[in-house]
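[agent] plan:
  1. take the single chain provided in the ticket
  2. run structure prediction with default settings
  3. attach structure tokens to the ticket
  4. add a short note for the reviewer (M.T.)
[agent] executing step 1
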Amino acid sequence: MRAGQVAESDGIEPIARKVAQECCGLPLAIVVVGRALRSYEDASAWEDALSQLKQSVPLNMEEVEEKLFKPLELSYQNLKTAELKQLFLYCCLFREDYNISEDEVTRYAVGENLLSNLSTLEDVRGRVHFLLQKLKLSCLVLDSKKAGCVKLHDVVRDVAVYIGFKDNNHFLVKAGLGLIDWPKYENLADCKRISLSNNFLQEIPEKPNCSKLVLLLLNMNPITSVPINFFENMVTLNVLDFSSTEITSLPSSLTCLKRLGTLRLDRCKRLNDINVVGELKTLIILSLQQCKGISALPETVDGLVKLKLLDLSNCTLLQIPRNLIPKLTQLEELYLRGYNVTEALFVEIASLKRLVRVELYVKDAQDFSLKVIPSNAFKNLCHFIIYNELDWFTMASAYQRKLFIKQASQSVIIWGMPFLRGTEDLMLDSCQCNLTDLTPLENMSCFANLKSLTLTNNHQIQCLLRSTNGTPSNAFGELVKVNILNMEKLDQICHGHLPDLSLRKLRTLVLKRCRNLVDIFPRDLLQRVHSSLVELLLEGCPGSGILLNFEGLGHDSVFFPKLQTIRLSQISDVISFCTGVVPPGSLHNLTTFEVVNCEKLSYLFSPTLDATHSRLLPSDTFKKLKHLKIMGCPCLKHVFLPSTANELQSLERLEIKNNDSMETIIAEEEGCDLEKGAFPMLNRLLFIKLPVLCCFFKGEPAKTLDWPSLEYIHLGDCSKLAGLPIGRESAQKLKKVHVVRPDDVDWFTTLKWEDDTIKSRFDIIQSIDEVE
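[agent] step 2 finished; step 3 output follows
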């Protein structure tokens, strides 16, 4: 902090650190606050400043207000529209460091008609997303690591709370401050929006005077009851959130809320009486997620004729009265995750003409009738998740339209056609409909939008696509990810000529335990997917002798230019990763390469020279490789040739384990020697269970490497290894050597060094597992 020597004094230094923490790394905040406090040598002044920062109010110091809050407030004032300003202030309603969900903001905004002139929820969602993106560009909100969320920097949030509190905004925000009692604020009657979420409130007052209030957030408090007259002076309220409280019932005064648009009672697990909800005729959004104490939805809910969103997810005991759902004719979004949707209820849901978002757990989907819904049902859906295994919802991807079905019968194919034709993410497990391939579905335009496909335990399927003259040229043309698991009869991805536009966008290919798949990459498949593939995972497939055959492909094309990850496991018949002359520029973006339990693997790459004495691997082929793991390959005698090792300028981790025939890590190569500066970025080296390893490379121990980045070595059961290529000036960052067993400690002391004093530099630590 820019607080000079004052901040370093004994009584003030720990407080100064806490003040800096409240500034959360925002340079402007740290500098301005530090300068404002540097003239105060009394610890109490610093304590007072810390308290003010925690309360999200501007420090009572002219310099802080002028140089910190005023510039950030100016950024707010420069927002071009009232909608942008209002949405920015909305973001301060949540506690510090909160992942602010676009969905949550949307549900609040709809309730008080914050974004006027938008007739549908989907329009509001789109506008909220657009406005939050604009706020990101203005640097007032930040990206979040959580999908669909944004965050506020703590200091920016403080400014938002400050702006919301003053002028005519009338925000009162005390979220996440540890409040035990209802705040004593003399101007409560003027407040328009109050957020007391994330506190420790157990009791709330009777009939508070909040006559202008439009939004009240009391969620995430241990409130046990609501006074009967609590809402009598809140007749203007539009948004109410009691989620994650301990309430058991709703007070009769709730009926006073003649303008209430959004009511959220999510995760009120003790709540058992919601009869009064049916009287709230203005409700647009009603959310009751995980209200597991509610046994029945009141029949009076059918009178909520303005309701557009109903969320009953994981209300496992709830009974929905028959014929109630069809009466909610304005419903646009229905969420029934974790709630068993019966065939009768499914039929009712299908009658909703305005439905655009739906999430349904259909436990008995395979038993539904063939024609359970009319052909024009669900035609307006832009978002859906349909699944019949309870825990599969957690597998939902970022895609908008998802269909996950286990034991799909022929009836599922028929009634599920609206979803099959629209789905972006499809998972079929243990199909019961006797498909040998997916061509019949493709011919019915089922996969026009499909981006992710998972097939598992479908033991009749022999291939994805059986190409004929009638097969669409763009079959599977939008697929980005393919997961195929436990498919006993699968012998090819495509039978016949691969259609012209098929699989052209494939980025991830995962093939696991397909015991009949020998030719994993036939020539036409290799040529089709190589330009887009980013990730390749193969496990438990026999494969052929060569995984990637570049012979005859020519030198004009760059192959696998985007491939970043290769993981091979239990590919029982593979002898070499690739053969043939690799075109220059190929594999240039590979960062992770793992080979595990490939019993016949004899060498990773084909011999270095062909008949014309040209290199088969061009220079810098693996220049970006960072992680290399070779484990359980009993036929492999070495990993690299010097020419390849010298080019591994980015390698950070080298893990070699359980390779019974490994004699040396780097073999001899005519006309090429290992450079002293090889592996400049390597920081972790693991050699475990290499019983015949005798040297790191030929010529050892006379030659040593620099190892400028090496920080960690783990060795075990390498009893024939005579020495390590570490010299007097090598591996200056290496302080400890980890070994697996007590015997390895004794073995390490016998290693040969160019100078006997080298080994004394290292502490020997016994640890079976790798230490992070």
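[agent] step 4 note for reviewer: Confidence is low (pLDDT under 50) at residues 23-36, 55-64, 607-614.
[agent] ticket updated
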